[in-house]
Amino acid sequence: MADPLIFERSVPGRRGYRLPPSDTPSRPPADMLPADQQRATPPQWPEVAEFDVVRHYTRLSQLNFSVDTHFYPLGSCTMKYNPKVNERVAALPGFAWIHPLQPASQVQGVLELLHGLEQLLCAITGMAAFTLQPAAGAQGELTGLKIVAAYHKRKRRTRSTILIPDSAHGTNPASAALSGFSVVQLKSGPDGLIDLKEFKSKLNRDVAALMLTNPNTLGLFEYNIKTIAALLHEQDALVYMDGANMNALLGISRPGDMGVDLLQLNLHKTFSTPHGGGGPGAGPVGVAKALEDFLPVPRVRKRGTRFAWETRSRATVGRVHGWFGNIGVLVRAYAYIRALGREGLMRASETAIINANYLKAKLQETYPVPFHQSCLHEFVASAKPLKAHGVTAGDVAKRLLDYGFYAPTVYFPLIVEEALMIEPTETESKETLDQFIEALLRIAEEAKTNPELVRRAPQRMPVDRLDEVKAAREPNLRWMKPAQSIVHSR
Amino acid sequence: MDYAPNTDDQRQEMLRAIGVSSFEELINAVPVELHQRSLHAPHGLAEAQVLELCGALAARNQSLTDLTSFLGAGQYHHLIPTVVDAIASRGEWLTPYTPYQAEAGQGTLQAIYEFQTMVCELMQMEVANASLYDGASSTAEAVILSLRATEQPRVLLSEALHPHAREVIATYLIGANAIVQEIPAVNGVTDLEALGKALRDDVACVVMQQPNVFGCLEPMAQAGELAHKVGALFVSSVYPISLGLLQPPGAYGADIAVAEGRCLGTPISYGGPGLGLFTTTSALLRKIPGRLAGCTVDHAGRRGFTLTLQTREQHIRREKATSNICTNEGLIALRATVFMSLLGPEGLKEMATLNLEKAHYAHERLRDVSWLRPAFEQSFFNEFTLQCDDAVDIEVVNRTLAKADIIGGFPLKSWYPSMPHASLWCATEVLSQDAIDRAVDALKKAV
Amino acid sequence: MHVPPELLYTKTHEWAKRDPQEIVVGITAHAQEELRDVVFVELPKVGKVVKPGEPAAVIESVKAAFDIYAPVSGTISRVNDAVAKAPQLVNQDCYSKGWLFAITPSVPEDVSRLLSPDEYTKQIQTATH
User: Among A181, B144, B395, C70, which one has the highest count of C-beta atoms within 10 angstroms of its own C-beta?
Assistant: First the structure.
């Protein structure tokens, strides 16, 4: 039996939280609010006891796979362990309960932390300056593209094209379109990298920027990135790097040295802040010196030993967040970077790369990896050989759940048939990786001997495969109270 | 401290299995000239050192929990039931990704479905998404949706819409073919006459805030009617707690209603993470940005939940997506779901009533201060604008109050240069009568 | 694969039926099969001016969206509301009940550029081999 909805646990008159009594003179709301501004019917929220809520949401939580409970090799998402100490730090009242309009003199600690975080991100990436405002990677991309637009506008010219490789994450073209650019796709070369010839043929005076992910979504380093950057710079076009895969590069290579002009980092990936089932994240944007003036405002500044917000800037693209960004996430990332320090950061990327190559080496005979060079922190294998038995990458993903592993990213990037994009991260032990390898090899065996078992997976989860066609054809996006007649008849 | 468990021996063993003799061989794919020589970051720290370092930084911030604060202006201090933290700190909520594999994410998906239902109920709107970043970006997404849905270029923003929301809208519209026009406020509320004049056939939407940035209640029903007359959409930005007493956007015909939902169970955290609530009508369902969880059945006919209508989204539609959003504010939405469940309809109403009463008490007491007077004669919920005598500088007064651990009203002149003597005062359920009285006494002595 | 002989076709898998006043448009059985379960159809507004090669409608499956192009220039004269309400009609009966929209043509010679049933059959055969 599936778990009831919280609404189905509701009993009229039950209460889950009591507010303190009023200590100011009580007046009827009608004295203070005009009748036509008052709510007529209350929201139909559940009426449940505190313990109902605790049991309900504890039980629901147990239906989830999570990093804390399961290996989560979801490619490009960097599902590494999220250290508990960071949660403790972010919950300190000095961070959790400060108001964004308190005068700077009352919040020197958080300003120092934000300033320090910017400095650390500059050191790690080789960029000249950062904004911490964007609330997630995609908002970072959007911020970066607004800067690209502002840069060309300031040079009084129209540049309407963004070049994007066909292996890119979907947020890249979506962010470009939201900034009024048209997208020209670059077909990847036979080695999975940007094809220089293809790139040169698409490069012209209308190109505002190239958006590339490095290492790319295949886990491969764009070997020609410096040449590519130089060619773009010759046209005064910019290089935007999607830094979602930065977990491969800590202490290994700096985007600033590659000729990158702007990039976003996903702190909820590389810098270990929890994904929360879909956020909150943080997507700071770093830029080269020439673009610093375009960064969103306000910016934190150090004056002598004091920190303050600077709100004015002539060239700024403006604001992307209602306040200063996802501070709670930024605090966690700062604590993480300080805990790891230079040795820990380098060891993180090294270990992530070794883990990925180890999985690749052990799996590629069964699940071919179309591009042969060493991968960095992730790789893309293909479940194509199983197709002969009627088993798809999606089926493999579902069967992995039965084995107690979350699934890799499937069917992405689009350029690999039956793609399984696997990113182990550095925080998984060799023992876990060996178990995962065993499970994937067994599934390949099952595909031959008992394909139906794989096609019907998962069988050990709270629900079987869901009817997604029904979900999309007849969208049911909210609970409705059943008609009165079926409620009770006794 | 690093969190990588493999020992050096294991790493060597793995390198041998890969078929390389050293780690350096694995990064041959990175050109030598791009190899980083050194990383200029401090040495790592043990957990106790991290706590000491960050604890010292936190201690240099004055927490609202130790102050009497009248600050609101878009971020309001509300009680949070203990259960919210107890639930939200569970690793099963904290550490999964967006539930792409529905069978392994039923907890998150059911919670999103419950969240969507509660948000629809709160707003009295037909559809709610799984959240956006914050109130400001939700407002910007509402504008973008309006431009697409109406295919008209003009956006009318009330001057009494939070200035940060207006700034975020402006940034989001860089590169779009849109014209932004501001509608002035008169006596603290949007000027309906000016709005009427600005409403022509080329208007995509009218955006107003309730209560507005000055704390005043706007004539939303009339404004919405005006907008609809020319076929423009009416976008309402609201304050969730106020909806315990105030008319929900659905009741006055809003086409899109957005809010900063952080106040539903998450600490202020210096303004972020927020929680963008985004709701609309069924007519606009296919144009909504962000994720949606839907109810369906599995092959055995059991109820289950899945992400749905994903063809709107960037991972499928790429440059034609309704928005570029991917990661949203999942955990903050979960916190809000737990918060709304605990409060229930009665709890919300009680919380709203406490706010209304405390703010009206504070308003009345502050009128006793000889150099302060109401800036506008308008109804308000838990926030109001006061005007000081020309001779008094509210910032100087605030510095004096700070010495007594009181944060006075927010001076509005940085947002509205034409209002150099106005300040915005807010009182929520966390302010006691005693604290208000003490603050009034301090104000009387301050000048 | 069923390719009715009385219809004309496009390279992008639309069919066009010549009626006295208008051209009725839908997608072919081949396209319908490739798409799998159609979950949503977004139709143009009546009165919209369309040109060949420009997207006029969108058909969606669970994990993909496809633009449907106008085979000829003209103005949208009617749309199939039934298919908007029940998108599965595209799967069940793509050549009849699953029609999408009708165009009042403005450039009569556009029709001559469409593929004959034979040409279309050849195209899908080469594409699948």
Answer: C70
Q: Does C64 touch chain B (CB under 8 A)?
A: yes
Is pTM, for the whole model, over 0.90? Answer: yes
Question: Tell me, what CATH number does C73's domain have?
Answer: 2.40.50.100
Provide the percentage of residues in chain A whose pLDDT is more than 70: 98
Beta-carbon separation of B436 and A34 below 8 A: no
Q: Catalogue all structural domains in chain A, each as residue range(s) with its CATH number.
A: 85-339 (3.40.640.10)
- The domain tally of chain C equals 1
What pLDDT does residue A312 have? 87
Q: In angstroms, rounded to a whole number, what is the distance separating the alpha carbons of residues C46 and C65?
A: 22
| φ, ψ at B294 (rounded to 5°) | -125, 155
Contact check, Cβ <8 Å, B286/C40? yes
- Calpha distance B385→B363 (Å, rounded): 9
The phi and psi torsions of B216 (rounded to 5 degrees) equal: -80, 150
ipTM for the complex shown? 0.98
B317 contacts chain C (CB < 8 A)? yes
pLDDT of residue A1: 52
Residue C84 near chain B (CB below 8 Å): no
Domain ranges of chain B: 64-79+344-446, 83-339
Tell me if A355 and B319 make a contact (CB, 8 A cut-off): no
CA distance C59 to B221: 37
In CATH terms, is domain B64-79+344-446 a member of 3.40.190.290? Answer: no
Neighbours of chain A (3+ CB pairs under 8 A): B, C
C41: nearest CA in chain B? B286
Q: Residue C53 has what pLDDT?
A: 84
Mean per-residue pLDDT, A193-217: 97
Q: State the smallest CA–CA distance between residue B276 and chain C in angstroms.
A: 26
- Rounded to 10 degrees, the C-alpha dihedral A423/A425/A430/A434 comes to -20
- Across A265-274, average pLDDT: 98
Is residue C7 in some structural domain?
Answer: no
CATH 3.30.750.24 fits B83-339, yes or no: no
A472, C40: Cβ pair inside 8 Å?
yes
Contact assessment for residue A236 and residue A118, using Cβ atoms and an 8 Å cutoff: no
Q: What is the mean pLDDT of residues A115-142?
A: 98
The answer to whether residue A281 scores a pLDDT higher than 50 is: yes
A469–C62 CB contact, under 8 Å: yes
Expressed in angstroms, the distance from the first to the final Cα of chain B is 53
Tell me how far CA of residue A20 lies from CA of A32, A485, B295, B355, in angstroms: 21, 38, 37, 12
DSSP A225-262: HHHHHHHHHHTT-EEEEEETTGGGTTTT--HHHHT--E
Chain B residues with CB-CB distance to A149 below 8 A: 174-175
Q: Which amino acid is at B219?
A: P
Taking 60 as the threshold, does the pLDDT of residue A486 lie above it? Answer: no
Closest CA in chain B for residue A136: B327
Of residues C40, C42, C64, nearest to B316 (C-beta): C64
Q: Give CA–CA dist A86/A173, Å, rounded.
A: 34
Q: How far apart (Å, rounded) are the C-alpha atoms in residues C64 and C58?
A: 10
Residues of A in contact with C60 (CB under 8 A): 472
